[in-house]
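Quick one before lunch.
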Amino acid sequence: MLCERCKKDVYKHMLCKYCNRKICNACMKSSKKVTKINRIAICKDCWGKTKIRKEYKNEIATPPQEAAYERSYERK
Ligand SMILES: [Zn+2]
Ligand SMILES: [Zn+2]
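Model of the zinc ion complex:
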C-alpha cells in the first residue's frame, strides 16, 4: 500500500480525515479517538493549516476518564 503523501510503500496506513489521503505513520501528525470505535487522524499538511488544525482540536475527544484509563493501559 502506497502512502499518498510521501509515496512510500507502507504496510499500515491511516486516513486523514481532512484531505482523505491514506497516510503512513511518518506523515501522520496526530490522531485521537472521538468515540469508542472511531479514531481520526490528521496529516502534517493539514496540521500546517490553522483552520483545519482548529477543526481537529474541536473534535470531541475521549472523555477524560476513559483517556486516563487508556493511557494507563498503554503503559503496561
Ligand atoms: Zn507517508
Ligand atoms: Zn490531510
